[in-house]
Amino acid sequence: MSGNSPLQISDWFLASMGTKQFLYYEDRIPRDSAVLIVSNHRSFMDAPLLMKAVERPIRFACHHYMGQVPVMREIVTGQLGCFPLETPQYRQQSFFNQAIELLQRRQAVGVFPEGTKPMVQFSQPYQMQKFQRGFAHLAIRAAAGGEIHKPVKDLAVLPVAIASLEEVNTSAVPLRLLSVFDPSEPLFDRAGWHPLVIYRRVVLLVGHPLWITPQQVRQYQGKQAKAVVSELTERCETEIETLLRQGCY
After folding, report:
1. E strands in 67-192
2. With contact defined as beta carbons under 8 Å apart, do 23 and 206 qualify?
3. 6-248, what's its fold?
4. Which of 40, 34, 45 is nearest to 11 (CA)?
5. Domain ranges across the chain
6. Are 22 and 53 within 8 A, CB to CB?
7. Please, what sign has the CA dihedral across residues 9, 19, 40, 114?
8. Which segments constitute the Phospholipid/glycerol acyltransferase domain (predicted)?
9. Minimal CA–CA distance to 181: which of 94, 83, 70?
10. Does residue 41 carry a pLDDT above 80?
11. Helix, coil or strand: residue 24
12. What's the rounded Cα separation, in Å, for the pair 232 and 92?
């Protein structure tokens, strides 16, 4: 990583773009604990915006192709400190291992649970895709610990909504070009262009932190595991949907 921190680079980037950012409920942000930040995701600007909002570097899990495309790779991994997901056969375990190690060092880790689709298909600012459950598994596994990792104490999952008030929509690269770098992604195997959403005015609304409890850790086994993971996923998704409606209207 370069001599400039991801937070400094994010501040510089947003200033250079002339983006006006408004932050609500910042008193809900945990300051001294490990935190897993969960957010909706439509733009390449989302990671810098979240870093500026929480005032600390965030290590984001990003799409596999972002670690393969020249120039993008240097910015995303080299400058912002993101860690790209592996190819599908290694993706889950690699994601858990990297993220838990970061949380053990009481760093902030960021996840966009909607997956690739909202980044490669244009959507309205108030729209969200169904959340994938990987982040909930990660949070509870990190708090539980195991043979390899010690338990992460005082771990919070922090939902944050990014609500665009004014934006410019353009195109970046043909989707099929990206299949050269990530042939495993079916969304790249079609005509069309990768959309590029540039925020002019944007609101970030911080939700209530969801602290991982000993009860959730105990329930994370057998048939109960699916229920506790589903509940945490739905709580985050519902909180962000509510905040998004508040910010967009």
Report:
1. 83-84, 108-111, 156-174
2. yes
3. Glycerol-3-phosphate (1)-acyltransferase (3.40.1130)
4. 45
5. 6-248
6. no
7. negative
8. 35-165
9. 70
10. yes
11. strand
12. 18
Q: How far is CA 228 from the centre of its chain?
A: 21
Q: Sign of dihedral through CA atoms 188, 192, 193, 196?
A: negative
Q: What is the pLDDT of residues 215-231, one digit of tens each?
A: 999 999 988 999 999 99
Taking alpha carbons only, the member of 115, 118, 153 closest to residue 134 is 115
Q: Is 55 helix (H, G, I), strand (E, B) or coil?
A: coil
- The predicted model scores a pTM of 0.84
Structure tokens at 228: 């506790």
Task: Count CB-CB contacts under 10 A for residue 1.
Answer: 12
The candidate with the shortest Cα–Cα distance to 52, out of 84, 19, 79, 75, is 19
**CA dist., res. 178 & res. 102, Å (int):** 29
For residue 122, which amino acid is it?
A: F
Cα gap 131→4, rounded to integer Å = 33
Separation between Cα atoms, residue 191 and residue 193, nearest integer Å: 7
Query: Pairing state of beta strands 193-206 and 20-24?
Result: parallel
pLDDT tens string 90-108: 667 778 888 899 999 998 9
Cβ count within 10 A of residue 32: 7
Distance, CA of 82 to CA of 80 (rounded, Å): 6
What single letter denotes the amino acid at residue 50? L
Token pair 């708090």 is at which residue? 143
Let me know how long the chain is: 249
Read off φ and ψ for residue 182, nearest 5 degrees.
-145, 80
Half-sphere exposure of 69 (CA within 13 A, CB side): 20
Rg (CA), the chain: 17
